[in-house]
Amino acid sequence: MDFIRNFPFFSIMISMLSGIISSILPKKAAKLLNLFMIITVFFLSLILLIYLCITGESFVYMMGHFPAPYGNEIRAGILEALMALFFSAVMFLSVVGGHKKLDEEVDEDRHNLYYILVNMMLSSLLALVYTNDLFTAYVFVEINTISACGLIMIRRIGRTYIAAVRYMIMSLIGSGLMLLGICLIYDMTGHLLMSNIKSSIEAIHASGQFRMPLVVMTTLISVGLCVKSSLFPFHAWLPDAYGYSTVSSAAILSSLVSKGYIFLLLKIIYRVIGFEVFVSTNILNVFYVFGLSAMIFGSIRAIRENDIRRMIAYSSIAQIGYIYMGFGLATDLGMEAGIFQILSHGATKSLLFIAAIGLTDVSGFNRAFIHVTGAGYRNKIAGIGFTVGALSMVGVPMFSGFISKLLFAEAGINVEGKSVPTLVVLAISVILNAIYFMKTVIRIYTPAPDSEFKEESFRFKDKLSYSLTILGFIALNLVLGMSSEVFNDLIHKGLEMFS
Amino acid sequence: MGPYLLDNYGEAVAMLLFTIGFTNLLLQKNLIKKIIGFNIMDSAIYLFLALKGYIEGRMAPIYTQGYTSASDYVNPIPAGLVLTGIVVSVSVTALMLSLTVKLYSRYHTLNLDEISTRLRREKR
């Protein structure tokens, strides 16, 4: 049984190694290896999750042969295993679902490169999830940024290049601030391992010294990670990056990359700085305000958008606002709601991207709303997928979005001073969501009177894998929505293991 | 803050450089200048780290005959971190430069605003 403790390390290493091997394989083999790798990581994480639920306690895995203060460490608890499981599942579905589009949009000789980038992305995400060392986290944040940039610009058009440049600039600002924060932490505590830092910071906080450096350091790291996960005022790069990159990249970027940074932030809140100390710096209130404004602003921009892919991208800004709003409530319930929203948004947003591409493909590759009229009849499975995603985003019961909104409302209602704004903004945001998503759903099911686009001419050649992907996403959504107690229980136990 | 400024002038310089690099990365329109700004920003952080590891009157942490106690050496960890950081920033710079080359060969300008306006005109 103790052998299972190697699994976090194995899953990081498998994804890295398969990235390296992919570079010399032919295109088909690289694709198969990539899919095989993601499935392996999925099952390793599943076994790890079951093992952790049975033993009921987290463990620390020593990298190399040096004990705690000198060596590097990996740590795995229920929440980490759950995230790894979820990331690999969404990654698998996104890659499979966008495969046809990848053939069309990316040159033949660059497919290997694409799979290398996907592998690197997964390995860096897993490393962010599992690492117990702050500087390792920084290095993997940068690897994540570089592979995300590659995923954006793999489709060689002017829009994606400029989106990649914008993304890089914002990411570099974010990681620069974060690195400075980590340097300050190292300077204050003399440690880089999360558990050691936490005990020193608790001692420093209790002694009442270094109040100002503590606040500055927390601010630097939080702002850095907020910039990287595109919280509301730092979102300028997002619509282009999500709207014009190839669809697998858009799905991976929106549902996994930003979530990886948010998960790192969560780890820093609980395992590096400590929840009480973090609350005492009042950064969470800033998160709260920006989260609320993101919820409104992102939805308003999405309503005004005339391009279906960019509309979904703007909706991402609003959804990330929800997560930060939940964190900003500064209670355990709010945090749990935020984590559930990570899962819910990850499952729904990638479904929407993959479904939207099915709709635009049967509309002569036009993405403007006027052209997708009646697309739900021309590509039935994409229409169903989009409808499910839209219903989930609006918060209709049975789907995952409903549960996350319910959790936010439950968490917000008991927080003094924040209950009214939370509930009001939540209600407004739901209405705004309903406006732009229902508008789209009605449009795709309005029969186009003299449609020049026929179903036959724009049929997917391998419709089966596409349909299975959409069904997989719908199933994921329903599982999250209908058996949410299981996930809430896991999240709750995982958070308890964090401290 | 005032009385310690002269004692910690190295850190002050590092922060000043960080601000210069940060503003350049954020506000410059020219892509090459942005990249230079990024490099200044990262170097400032490495300077800061190196200063934090330096201990007055001690040797570089290289094992030589005669010195065996750890108290003879400066802290080696920040040097290791700086080295890792340099590797990261070199690769990021390379990526940014290659992107700049691509954009330049397509639009024949390095001005980010101008590229954006042209993109808007060309309508995808």
Structural overview:
- The complex is a heterodimer of chains A (499) and B (124).
- By secondary structure, chain A is an all-alpha fold.
- Chain A has 21 helices and two strands.
- Chain A starts with 6 loop residues before the first helix and ends with a helix.
- The model of chain A has no long low-confidence stretch (mean pLDDT 88).
- With 124 residues, chain B is mainly α.
- In chain B, helix 1 runs antiparallel to helix 2 and helix 2 packs antiparallel against helix 3 (77-107).
Condensed summary:
Chain A has 499 residues and is mostly helical. Helix content of chain A is 77%, strand content 2%. Chain A folds into two domains: 280 residues, no CATH class; 218 residues, no CATH class.
The CATH topology of chain B comes to: Helix Hairpins
Give the DSSP E fraction of chain A (strand runs of 2 or more residues).
under 5%
Radius of gyration of chain B: 21 Å
How large is the count of helical segments of chain A? 21
In which range does the helix fraction of chain B lie?
55-70%
Order of helices and strands of chain A: HHEEHHHHHHHHHHHHHHHHHHH
Specify the overall morphology of chain B: elongated
The number of distinct β-strands of chain A equals: 2
If helices are DSSP runs of H or I spanning 4 or more residues, what is the number of helices of chain B? 4
**Largest interface in this structure:** A-B, 27 and 36 residues
What is the chains' assembly state? heterodimer
Domains counted in the coordinates of chain A: how many? 2
The strand line-up of the biggest sheet of chain A is: 1-2
Write the layout of secondary structure elements.
The complex is a heterodimer of chains A (499) and B (124).
Chain A: H1 7-22, H2 27-55, E1 59-63, E2 72-76, H3 78-97, H4 99-105, H5 111-130, H6 134-153, H7 158-189, H8 194-207, H9 211-228, H10 238-244, H11 247-273, H12 275-280, H13 283-304, H14 308-328, H15 332-361, H16 375-378, H17 380-394, H18 400-413, H19 419-444, H20 463-482, H21 484-498
Antiparallel strand pairs in A: 1-2
Helix pairs in contact in A: 1-2, 1-5, 2-3, 2-5, 3-5, 3-11, 3-15, 3-20, 3-21, 5-6, 5-11, 6-7, 6-11, 7-8, 7-9, 7-10, 8-11, 9-11, 10-11, 10-14, 11-15, 13-14, 13-19, 14-15, 14-19, 15-17, 15-18, 15-20, 15-21, 17-19, 17-20, 18-19, 18-20
Chain B: H1 9-27, H2 31-53, H3 77-107, H4 112-122
